[in-house]
Amino acid sequence: MNAAQVDLFDFKGLTVMQNLKALSLSVLMIGSLMALSAPVYAANDGSIRGECKRLSRGERGRDFASAGTQDLDDLGYRAYQQGNYTTAINYFTQAIDKDPQNVQALLDRADARRAVGDYLNAIADYSMLRIAPLQPDSLTNIGYCHASLNNFPGALADFNNSLALRSTGDSAVSAYSGRAAVKRLMHDIQGALADCDAALRLDPDSLDPRWQRAVTYYASQQYAKAVPDLTIVVGKEPRFADAHLMLAQCYERMGNKANAIAEYQKANYLYQQAHDDDGVQQTTNALKVLQASAGAKLRPVS
């Protein structure tokens, strides 16, 4: 065996070649992935719901899953799409237990763990050597996890490394969007907006940069500028409660009580469906204040 080539895995389009040069890159990138023991916290003026959320998802290929575990993986993915993340994780884990080389089940479980806020275990799944650190989309997902854990330097390193590996395509759009979130959290508003614009130049239809740009405008009190992006986001993702909430907050701050009430009601309904008690309480309180001042009566949302 050539000493320069240590191992080769080929999963039909998910190819990881590990040679001495790649291993050197791996060491550098894994350093950012493991920087969780002493995360650095940037100053923040207040938490914004969903501000580190990734709306898009990397391309999923059935060919990545092993034939013997295809049914389990399909059951897990169906549960994931329905928002039943705990059930999905159980199915994906069963598939991985039956075949530890099932790359698709591992990626699916990582996505589900990220969705429920289990960021450390999601990072562990994304960081498996047969997948990461040479896959840009895995690095991007790890960056979102690090950002959610307030490890902003680690997240920046992840997004930068992802962009260094691939500067175009869906992974680049999401990497720019994630980096925008981190820059905003570190109070670099102009840098955040620049990354959102860079992502939209690559894909004007992507929701990730529109969401991050809206959050950035909202965080910098530019509510009128946030509304068009939020309107597009809720138009394409009508069940994204956090976007309805932010749109309501923008309308409220702009003095548009009628639209604010309508969006708060939509968000309230969606939070109830998701059993999100904090979201329900926040929107209920906002509605009481607005409806009292507007003389409106609470009406159910269909």
In short:
Helices cover 64% and strands 4% of the residues. It is mostly helical and 302 residues long.
Helix/strand layout:
Layout (H helix, E strand, L loop, with lengths): L4 E7 L2 E6 H14 L36 H12 L3 H14 L4 H13 L3 H8 L9 H13 L3 H14 L4 H16 L3 H14 L4 H13 L3 H14 L4 H13 L3 H17 L3 H18 L8
Antiparallel strand pairs: 1-2
Helix pairs in contact: 2-3, 2-4, 3-4, 4-5, 5-6, 6-7, 6-8, 7-8, 8-9, 8-10, 9-10, 10-11, 11-12, 12-13, 13-14
Count of discrete structural domains? 2
CATH C-level class of the largest domain: Mainly Alpha
Number of helices: 14
- Give Rg in angstroms: 21 Å
Biggest sheet features:
2 strands, antiparallel
Average residue pLDDT: 83
CATH topology of the largest domain: Serine Threonine Protein Phosphatase 5, Tetratricopeptide repeat
Principal-axis shape equals globular
- Spatial gap, N to C terminus: 65 Å
Number of strands: 2
**What share of residues are in beta strands?**
under 5%
Q: How much helix is in the residues?
A: 55-70%
Run of helices and strands: EEHHHHHHHHHHHHHH
CATH superfamily of the largest domain: Tetratricopeptide repeat domain
Low-confidence parts lasting 5 or more residues at pLDDT below 50?
1-45
Strand order of the largest sheet: 1-2
Looking at the overall shape, the CATH architecture of the largest domain is Alpha Horseshoe
Structural class: mainly alpha
